[in-house]
């Protein structure tokens, strides 16, 4: 089989290669589950596509009425009016569907503050004389008659104020009703509105009927003046009311005062309070008759109300005021008809199913991988698969890197299929969004989901519970996002900071991103189906930029939390660490407690063989150059009691030395402490106190190195059902740093040794193995790579006699180069394999020695069995008493009696002679004579241990 020399510990790259190969093999065998994962999003995309087709059939695209012309011929007046009415409904409706060949000539407007928000003297928080001088009293708010204020400053006050007088126009406000055209009205006065601009300047809502009226701003205004003006639109003459608002031009000392007044007045330090708004502010700086230099303030906060601002007229007013200051009232430079580039026809509003249902369904699709990853991790934790791999040399870093890479590859393949199919069938969320944006968003979201699954896996120890919680999280996060979170997104009055706080919940941040991806195509189609660019997609107004930042930060945070929980929570890596293990002052305090200083070790004196073993340990532990395979010094394990129950002492002061090339058998009744002892040796449980050295390495300090030196066959088989026996051995062989031909040879020899090469069993899936075949595979895994110490917990359980015999041969061969620690309930197996045997009872090592020594020490009697009719039982007892007065009867049933006769003073010839003589007088149907067995020794020691008082005699090791 393997060579006597163990290979060196596997490197990081060897470990990652082994684990990746294993995961790929598992994934290749799970094709049905893979197809299920892929089919679900494909079916969902098809469902959305089908629903969109049905919606298009049920609600077809509205007819376009774009043929409205001006009526001249009276004969066609009725039909012309019908066409014009239809076009007007479209133009003044929710969307503008028709392109206008000759757009109306409408002037740009001032953005006036709404009446309740215009600046007044008493509403400002500042009391300094530099602020609020000249503003109207706060009482004007009651009748909505507050003036619209313009602030002015400059180096030459008189000149700046002279220019400022012309900002409101140079003509007196006598009869503005004569100016029935908005162009002529805007050329003479400040014409403004409180309406906000939409996303296009093609048709300003201020000119539509039934909305906020237009306003003239003038210093000599009569607030009761209201008159209509005529607007030409789509061949029709529309009418709109115009009202008058008082205008104030107020001087301020410098631009700093204006800055402070604008800020303190408009916001008052609170972005939710829109009060004390100023119409505009101008700093004419060093303007003179030879040079025009002006700075214009405008209210940029209106960007939150729409993507455009009315700033053209405010800048034009300053240039006209300067020209009139120089050249007279009739000189002006009009800046009219300033708009965006000409727009095309807007598509009519239709139902977009992907916009309505996409965020909810796509949230479910993406999060569907979360419970898959969570159950995978919890399954490895519950079945102790991770610690089992760790015991065979797999480090924590390779495990998490490959596991993360495996999840990322799985998620990337899943999302690629999902997005590709959605693109091919034409779902707008995929076709009209930036491909770069989609790539970044889906990459960040799946990474955040993987990190979240790792964190959650540390909190669960049962697969069923984890599965229920995982799928509940998926459905609840989607439903809450659709019916709660989306409502807040659409409510413009809801604070954006609270929405960002809600997005800290990963389900909501994912939903917000998908919601934005669904909204982009909706807006894009309204301007002709143009794909949204990366810069447009991550603009602050849309919210995608914030979502990406939150998700990246949470991704990093969850990875750090996962790293911390992996050390302090029992997540399958073995012994957990102190919650503050990373602090320098706690470094070195994580070792097992010691109860020995020098030679101060307590040794049980009731059993001289146990006491002698303790003395040997005392000497060996002081001689570090004499390395034993296993050395235990005063080892204890105490489980704290709960609910008023006392502490459970599983192992009590065990001292044991096991040499290389020795097979040590551990016997004992159930609950004696055998499994606890093995768990401490392999790193599953931390000792309460004491020392364990394996190949000279302390398990409390160097457990990772100890794992590279050992192999283990656990009591319960730890195998993957979808891997073959050969693949199992290849995986664990690579962890033992076997490569190339040496790996293949070691696998073949291990399979041959445990009888798994016959009939192609080695290449069958482990899930198809019988219990005995899995047991043999576990034994083969434990010995591959020639480990220095092998732990076998009841390895022959469930094996037939032939397989058991072959297994014994394997163990006999293994102990030629390794130390083997074997637990078993088979006395025959212990006698055949073990060089020494230790019997555990109630946490104590009751006796230790070779099977022959124990039988001689605890046996010391012959066992005589005689079967006669029931009426001759007394005669048999008399014969036995004559042979050995100290004999005791241990068994009696229906004429069959069993006696223990001490060997001292008794000869076998005497026994045979008396039985032969008795057969002539009695009806002896059967009889037998045997020596004491190891089973008898075990029963005797166990019974005696149960009856001995808890008070023990001890001495100190010297």
From TrEMBL:
Main location: membrane
InterPro entries: AAA+_ATPase, ABC2_TM, ABC_transporter-like_ATP-bd, ABC_transporter-like_CS, ABCA, P-loop_NTPase
Region (Disordered): 119-140
Molecular function, one GO term: ATP hydrolysis activity
This protein's UniProt keywords: ATP-binding, Membrane, Nucleotide-binding, Transmembrane, Transmembrane helix
Positions with biased composition (Low complexity): 122-133
Keyword Membrane listed: yes
Membrane topology: Multi-pass membrane protein
Positions in coiled-coil regions: none
Family annotation (Pfam families): ABC2_membrane_3, ABC_tran, ABCA12_C
ABC transporter domain mapped to chain residues: 630-867
Keyword Membrane (UniProt): yes
GO CC terms: membrane
Transmembrane segments: 31-51, 356-378, 399-427, 439-461, 468-485, 543-565
PROSITE patterns: ABC_TRANSPORTER_1, ABC_TRANSPORTER_2
Compartmental location: Membrane
Top-level lineage group: Eukaryota
Family membership: Belongs to the ABC transporter superfamily. ABCA family. CPR flippase (TC 3.A.1.211) subfamily.
Protein name, per record: ABC transporter A family member 7
Encoding gene, per UniProt annotation: ABCA7
